Amino acid sequence: TALRYGLDMLAFNVILGVTAVCFLMHHGFTFVFYSAVAILSFIAGFLLVREKPVIHFPERGLLYSRGIPKVTAIMDAEGVSKPNIRLSPHEELDNVLNQIVSFIIRDYITPWYNSLTPDDSFPMELHKLLLRVFGNVIKRVSEVDWVPFLTEILPSFMAAHIRVYRNMLERKMVYPDKDSVKLFFDVEAETEKTVCHEEVCCSQDREKDHLRLLSDMFLFFVTPA
């Protein structure tokens, strides 16, 4: 039993020695030195911290930043009129939108407009116009049936786009010299039959025309009559 125990200890020491040699050969003595210094520093710092008394600060002596509530209080103190246009079913949302519009006019319209004339009729009318635009947007958004759009239309559109992209990758392996963008729109035209976005995506002029058309449609639906 003693002989077996001695052999086990010898094998353990050999394995430990080989491990130490491999570790030193891989990391070097510098790593071992810095590791030892780090461990000793941690132990010394831990012992020093334990010897120092814990200082308890009274809660009332600490200063906390009020942040956004303080800024909001300052803005409210300046005076923001309550909206007289019903924008949504929730009064809190109406107040927030009214404040946003008021701050936009105050920061971007009033500085240069007051240098022209002291009359405030234009900012007031602009304020009402923006509130009506917000109201029309909220009304249009509330009329949309989002369930089929988010569960059927949008996922099917994304799946079709991914399918076209994967088909383009397969065709790219057959024709490696062809442009990937050209292959993508070729596959899209073959897959969708009647839809191809190549002109809109590859031409800046067509892209601007398309965005201009979308902007006109958006303004048509949200701008008050």
TrEMBL record:
The chain crosses the membrane at residues 7-26, 32-49. One of its GO terms (cellular component) is early endosome. Pfam families: PXA. Residues 90-225 form the PXA domain. It comes from the Eukaryota. Keywords: Membrane, Transmembrane, Transmembrane helix. One of its GO terms (molecular function) is phosphatidylinositol binding. InterPro entries: Phox_assoc. This is SJCHGC07377 protein. It comes from Schistosoma japonicum.
